[in-house]
From TrEMBL:
Domain Acyltransferase, chain residue ranges per copy: 17-356
RNA-binding keyword on record: no
Name of the featured protein: Lipopolysaccharide modification acyltransferase
Transmembrane domains' residue ranges: 54-78, 99-117, 148-173, 180-199, 211-232, 239-259, 271-292, 313-331, 337-359
Entry-linked InterPro entries: Acyl_transf_3_dom, Acyltransferase_3
Record keywords, A-Z: Acyltransferase, Membrane, Transferase, Transmembrane, Transmembrane helix
PANTHER family named in the record: ACETYLTRANSFERASE (PTHR23028), ACYL_TRANSF_3 DOMAIN-CONTAINING PROTEIN (PTHR23028:SF53)
Annotated GO MF terms: acyltransferase activity
Amino acid sequence: MASDHLASFENTRERLAGPDLVRAIAITEVLICHDGGMISAWCHKTLPFHLAVLGFYGVMLFFVLSGFLIGTIILDLLDRKASPKDWSIFLVRRWLRTLPAYYVWLIVLLIPLAYFGPYGVTWDEGKRVLPYYLTLTQNLGWPMVSGWYGVTWSLCVEEWFYITFPVLLLLLLACRVRSAVAFGTILAAFFIVPLWWRLSLPTNVDWNEVTSKIVPCRFDSIAWGILAAWFYRRFRIITTFHIPLALCGTFIVSIIWWSDKLPFPLWNGRFQSMAIYDVVGLAYALCMPAMMRLSALPPLINQTVRSISTHSYALYLCHLPLVLVAGDLQVRYGIRIRYALLFTIVTTLGGAILSWRLVERPCLKLRVRQSFQKVESRDGHSVQNKLSGF
């Protein structure tokens, strides 16, 4: 049975509130971490620890959501024995959703670097690392080549996942491996290889810059979403327990988030650096069925959440570079904090809105529809499967 229809940027009337809410929560956590940390530094203060680590949880939530949505599509393609053309449509749709906005922002952010001096790095370093950013290889098998445009590390993880998972799956299918066996084998590999890679790293590496940002080290974060999609699809009884599962997942995340307040250590540092991705990934995966059951929110809240969700990708791409520009203007030209803050808010929100209207939405309209057969909904009515704006 094919999947339920998912939230879609292209089908706003049937758009589920659950994925929108997850995106809104994730981007809010990232903004609190990054912008909150920078603004606190302007005031010569430190962002409280439990707010400073929200960036990790926000990115993890994005990864699991991405895995769940693309996992649903991949399972649909497998079930209907999709042709190579269908798989190519899947990849092209992904690239049209993510790459145009990325390259536009990459070019836009080079302008202040070239003409107004450094914000984080010099122009010479920007030119040196630009080929990596153009090919999305800035952290392919090594730490980020530069601190400039650092938020793009997670985009690289997702883009390479979108390529490697389907390609390896199709290779096994071409060898006449049964689809269920092929899918399970590749999914298992995407859990095993990242853990092995992290364990192979020296124990004294920088966790934030090495263990958590090298592309293969984070594939399992997305794989948890794909596993959740498989369980949600194959064992529909779990929808009956979506609330207990979500409460369990929320409890796990809360315990880890506040583990420093426990009267006993939750785990040692080495184990934490290896396992935290999978423990948090599992916790978020447990929340996915509840996300899919949330079809609507109160009107005012729903409108706000949907707007944040719609602009979440552009917000992610532009927020940190723009707050760094504001900080650079403050240091070099003595701009007052309130004006730097106003600059950050106006450019970030304005940039996200323009990115959506001028780049992302037009590119969505260019995408070929990923067609699927009509499927039966839970109430027995025939509905057209609507895939995510992914």
